[in-house]
Every structure is written in structure tokens, then in C-alpha cells.
Amino acid sequence: MEHIVKELNRNWSLKEVEENKKYKAKVPGSVYETLLENNVIKDPFYGINEKDCQWVYETDWEYSTIISFSKEIVEKDYCMLRFNGLDTYCQVILNDRVILFGENMHRTYEVYIKTKEYSFLEEGDNKLTIRFRSPVKEAQEKLKQSGLSIDSKSKYHLPFAIPGVEMLRKAYYSFGWDWGPKLPDSGIWRTVELHAFNDSYIRSVQVQTEIEFIIGDGNGRPTAKEAEITLETELEDFRENGDKTILYQIFDGEVLLHSEKIDSMKMGTEKKLMIKNPKLWWSHDLGKPNLYRLIVKLFDGEQLLDEYSTHFGIREICLIRKEDRWGETFYFELNKIPVFAKGGNWVPTDSFLTRGTRKKTYKKILDACVQANMNMIRVWGGGIYEEDAFYHYCDEKGLLVWQDFAFACRPTPDYSGFEESVIKEAIDNIKRLRNHPSLAIWVGNNEIEEGWLYWGFDQFVPQYKSFYIKLFEETLPQLIKDYDPFRPYWPSSPSSGGSFQDPQSPNYGDSHYWKVWHEGFPLESYRTFDSRFMSEFGFESFPDIKTIKSFCKTNQMYYDSKIMENHQKNPAGNQKIYDYMEKRFKIPQSFEKQVILSQITQAEAMEYGVEHWRRNRNNCHCMGALYWQINDCWPVASWSSIDYYGRWKALHYFAKRFYNPFYINAHETPEFFEIWFCNDLPVKFNGRYAFKLMDLTGEILYQKEGSLYASGLFSSVVERVNFKDIGIDSKNTILFFKAFDQSDKCVSEGFKLFTPPKNLSLLKPTIKYKIEKEENKNSLIIQADKPVLYCLIESTEDLIFSDNYFSFSGEKKVVHFRYDGEISDQSIHVRSLFDFLTD
């Protein structure tokens, strides 16, 4: 092939600009990661080592390598270096010539080092050097130039972050967040490539689909009669004459569906193809995420100049905003099916980005999201535009993606060159990500519109307010229209539609609800806020005790120790965990048991909110619940449901239950309770329900079962019971409930208490369990002589169980897990709330 692409990721070294000592460095890689691997610094994640690493981000660093260009490359007419990620302010020098000034980590930079008119390269060895300026010093300089304070105690700055990250185009979280450390990194965080060619290559191909639907496939979903595929190819073409043609091939698996060649000079670079009876792309809860493969080849006569390949899905995604009796709807419609979005907020998987990418941490976490019945991931604006592999994995797994542009919680500056850089950043990433069927929406920013109204930005930078409107309500939406016109745009999250019109209105747009946690409101407050789409709400807990042991000394294992406070970045967060926990539970002396109770409190908080919003889905009143947050970038006490090492907290197991497409749940009060059933699938549900009220000894006080008929995409009350009518005092009772399908398989189950657990006169259950081994999975059979609350299964290995932190009446419970090695009953430990409350 005429177009040669060579990755330049080998034989790099790193040194301080003002020093001579060099360290072997990985590329892609980062300064912190390199220093760790060369034992220059201690692990910043351990203890309070983070505080000893300040000198790293205050230092300028230099990467260098020697590149040998072969005669074949040197003889090409054009050679270009592509830098897919430089973090952040840097000079790129080739053979003592400065060829690039980088100032935006989210951009892709291209520099021609050889054309027909000039050449900066030599046959044989060429030295490539990249010098990175301290990001903190650069931020301070820009703050000073803008007349703003660099004092971290200034009310203008976030209390948990190094000042000034908003002045740079760098991931905001790297300067510190209320769940992340202050470790602003530098480095070559994505690949460096050499491109060599003679006249033309394919820059990108845009795939757009328009579908003719046939309503109804027997499962309540539409099918497609045909789909028109519009392919628009962007060429880098330095030669106007020639016999150039483009070959388009579409594959379904290994089957070639279409193969057609066009004359690119006569017909342009747009081609329309038809696919009959196409397989639609669905989120995994609604169907199969079918993907097609496109191969585009560029020829000059018979010579193959370049080849481009991508996957795509045939689907229609719409953001539905219609006036109704409450205000205006806000929900996603996938292939004509209204989707209740269930999921969480995604942050970068590591403080050192390249380490997280190299470990493919995203796969483990996204797999866990699918297991927990999530159908949407919100990529939060204070992080990054994720790797291509992240979005492709979401495509394959059937996960919708809400994508923020990379802005969060800070006013956007308006100094010379800033807007131009953002426009180029936006175009790069829109074009990079637009073919992914998982991508559902572009959103301008996280919480900046809200910040202008409620956080006092006007007091410090009133001059930036008009630029906010220009950037997020004019420039970015126009870029979406230009480069990705079939995908919706929303100006901010939360927002009622922009222009500072009460972004926290429950009747319009999306909402963030933080009265629970930040303002100390009780968990029940979630039930007083009827959002149209809840895109952020959260509650903190401690990570798994194994994770805590990875960073904390034994003598520091108490909630307000020096180390535990350093691994809690939300001001007074550990005390807040303790205070909320104390409202629900009697607090044991054991820190390990406090950790478990913190996770149960967090899980119950999120359940309170989600079950309420799911019950409000009818007439599209509320159509989304994305909790804050799914994952962590380091081991920390935070809002995550999966900790840094991939260990599931109680919340993730609860999420698997409360995000179940078929979800039986209860609305409880001291006077009555209601059994609800939520059906998020378009097909009707036929089965039965059963519930029973038990006392703490296991005696059944009242029980009932009946037929369960539930319409698709609907929530309804199955049963309402008044305690006076059945002559029972709700105190010291437990409500257990289940839903069964037509084959009598239990599809959903749960429980409710009518008082905080600390008010219960608990009895110790005798729990018996055994492992039954099968070829592909293992089963844990659990039984007890009385009701078991918050049953926790632990293992010496980090196992993921089909259920955990559950409550059951004592009857047989079967839990599945996978483990390839030998495992015995002694490897498993089962405990309950009674054990957590006793020392």
C-alpha cells in the first residue's frame, strides 16, 4: 500500500529539562508513570505520598528518541508526524528545529516534515524531542495574565484543587477533584505516528444511516425494511489529476453485502448505499447491538493508495423534547422505543491515564456495567474524551454513551487563542467518535451554566459570561450540525435548555440532585424531587477493606486518621459518611465493619432515588437515572460503585437489582406499603408476584400472591396494604417480595424495612452454605433459620457473585460465581447485619 503508517512508540527517554540523567520511558506514557517505574518516586497512591510528589508537576520535562527513516520513507513526496495526544504545553523539536507548539491535550496535531517544497528529515537517524512545561506554572501564569488570584484559598477556586486548570485545555480532574488526588501529569499520552505517502490518503469517513421502520417484531420493537447508508469520505489530496477511485465494501460479519467503486474526481466523495432488512443496533437490554464493518479503499488506477476500516451500527437515536402537563419531556428514543436510561457517570480509570489504558481497565468496568443492567454511561466533562477502544467496546456491548465536552464546573476563559483551540479540539473529537452507534448525545459541559447562576462566577469573571453563551450555545451546537448532524446536542448538564433558565428545574431538561449528601438532607428527600432526567446524584462510601489495606497502615485504619483523610477529597467527607451511617445503624467499633455499613448506606441511598424515579416513568415524566459515579481513578473514599481495583461495592450489587428491566419494588411508610412493578421493555410481562411480612424470628405475619400483568414501558402499583387493615404493627417487621415470569422463574426480588435498622431487635441467624461445582460455573447454596439482612458473601479471591448484600427470608438462596481454580467452602465467608453490628 502506498500510504505508510509507522508508530513511533519505541526507544524514548525522559529527563528533567535542566538535568542530564535520563530514564527509559514508555510511549504512550507519562512523567509520573515513568518516575514510578524507575523508582524515582514512591507510589503516590500509598499513604500520604501524594504530598511528596509536588515537585514533579512543578518541573519541566523532556522526552526524546532517535528515529531512523528508511530510504522508502524518505523518498515519499510527503511525510507527516501525527501526535494523537500531548499533555499539554509543549515544544516539539525535530533535528534542532521547532516544528510544533502544543497547548491542548484533547487535540490531534499533525505536522508535515517533508513536502515537495521542503524537508526537515534526514535519511538515517533523526532526533525527536518533546519538552513539556509544568502545567501548574502555565496555569498560574495564565491566571496572572487574566488578573486572577493564584492563591488556592481564594473563593474563586475550587477548595480541593490546584488553581487554574480551567485556563488550560487539560483534563480538569488532574489538578485535583473531590474524589481525585492533585497529580497533574505530563507526557505523550497517546500514540505518535509517521505517515508517508506520495499524493493522497483517507483522512476520515463519516457513516450516516436513515432507516425505514416497520413497526412491530413480536417483541414490541420495530424492525427495519431498509436503511440508506450515506458515506462521506474526506481525502488529503495533493494531486488534482489522476485516475482516483474509491471502493466501498460493507460486511456483515464475514459476509460481503456491498462492494461498489466510484470515480472520486467525477462523483465527489459521497456515496449512498441501501441495505435491505438491516439488523438494527440496540442497547443490550432491548436487543442485540448488531454491527457492520465498512472498508474503504482509495486507488490511483490499479495502485492501492490507502485503506480505511471502521465498524458502524444501523440505528436511530433521538432526544425527545415535547411540551406536556409538567413542562417538557427529556428522554432518548432508540429505534422508536422510549428508553429509560439507567447507568452512571464515568471518570478516567487512573490518575495516570496511560496506565489505565494499558491495563484495559475500561473493559472490566464496562463489563460490570452490563452485568448491573446499565444501558447508559455518562462520560463526565472533567475528564477526557476516552480512547477509541472504549467507544468500540460500548458499541459491542450495547451501552449508550452520553458524552460531555471536556469542561466542568469552572468558567471558561476568553483569552486570545482559547476559542480557536477549543474549536479544533471539538472537530477532532466529533470526527473521531461520530461513527459509534453507542454515542447518544453531545453535551456542552458539566455544571458550568449552573455555576454562573448559583456559584458566584459573576463576582470574579463577569467578562467571561457572554463567551459562555457563544461557546456552548452557538459555536459547539453549530459544529455538531456541521460534522454530526444526526446526533442531539444539549448545552450543559444540568440544564433546562440553556440561557441560564433555572438549570435545576424538575420540569425541564436534566437535573443534578445534591441535597442528599452535600446539604445533609435525609435519603427520603429523593422522593420529593420529580426530575425529567436525573443525570447526577450520589452518595459516598469507603472502598473495600482490601483496597484500604493497599494504601493504609493498620494503625491508621480509622475514619479520621491522617491517611484516611488524605484518601477522602470531599471536605469533611469521612465525617459525613459516619453521620449518615449513624442515622441508619448502630456503629460498631471495628473499622472493617464500619466500611461495610458505609457501603450499605450508600447503596440504600441510591436505591431510594432510583426506585422513585423509575416509578415515575409513565407518560415519560422521568426517563433517566445516572448515579454519580461508577469508577475511581485511585483508591479513595468516594461516590463510586466500583473501586479503583475493580472491586464491587454494595452499590453495584444493588444497582444490578434496581436497574433490572423487570423490577419489583416497594414504597414503604409506617402506615402502609405499596408493591410496584416497573417494566422497561416494550413487551408485556405476564407472571405472578408474591410478598410476605415477617417478624424477626421468621414467623410470617401476612402474605399474598397474585397474577402480574404489566404493560410494556410502564410502571404500576400491584398491591397496596394498610397496616391497620391487617392488624399488624410495622415495627420489627420485614417485607420480602418477588416477581416470577410465566415459567415461574424469579426475575426480581427485594425487601423493605419500616424503620432504620438500628431500631430493630435483631436475632442472630444461623446461616448454612455449601458450594456446588459445575463445568462452567459454581453455585453457592445458602439457607438460614430466620431472616437474614444484608447478607454479605466474601472470599479469599476477588470473586464477582451473581448477587450479594441481599436480604432473604431464610429459604434456599442460590448464588452463582465463576472461578477457574479450586475453591472450597472454607474459601467463602458469609455474614449478615447482625455480625456487622456486634464486635
Q: What features would you highlight for this structure?
A:
43 strands; 33% strand; six-stranded antiparallel beta sheet; alpha+beta; single chain; 20% helix; 839 residues
- Tell me the strand order in the biggest sheet: 3-2-4-10-7-8
**What are the segments in which pLDDT stays under 50 over at least 5 consecutive residues?**
none
Task: Please count the helical segments.
Answer: 19
Specify the helix fraction band. Answer: 10-25%
Average pLDDT, all residues: 95
How does the overall form come out from the CA principal axes? globular
What characterizes the major β-sheet? Answer: 6 strands, antiparallel
Q: What's the β-strand tally? A: 43
N-to-C span: 71 Å
Structural class assignment: alpha+beta
Strand content: 25-35%
Rg, Cα atoms, Å:
28 Å
Task: Give an account of the 3D structure.
With 839 residues, the chain is of the alpha+beta class. The protein is built from 19 helices and 43 strands. It has a 6-stranded antiparallel β-sheet. A hairpin with a 4-residue loop joins strand 36 and strand 37 (746-753). Helix 7 packs parallel to helix 8. The longest helix has 25 residues, at 591-615. The termini are far apart.
Summarize it.
The protein is an alpha+beta fold and 839 residues long. The strands form twelve sheets. The protein has a six-stranded antiparallel sheet. Strands 27-26-25-24-23-30 form a six-stranded parallel sheet. The chain has a four-stranded antiparallel sheet with strand order 1-12-5-9, with no helix packed on it.
